[in-house]
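Usage

Read records sequentially. Each one opens with the input sequence:
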Amino acid sequence: MKRLLPALREAGLSLASNAVTVRSGPGGLSDADVAAANARLAKKPIDPEAAAAET
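and closes with the structure output:
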């Protein structure tokens, strides 16, 4: 792997990463709206049956 990754980069291939980037553009939510949405999600109870269905 140590030799493979540099060779791929040198060839111009980009690999996916686990990094998450968030971009907001015009028309995005204000910081207050985002904070309110996060607060609502944090208080929302988790339905055990729905959580089991996702896994």
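Summary fields computed downstream for this record:
- The mean pLDDT is 76.
- The chain is about 50% helix and 0% strand.
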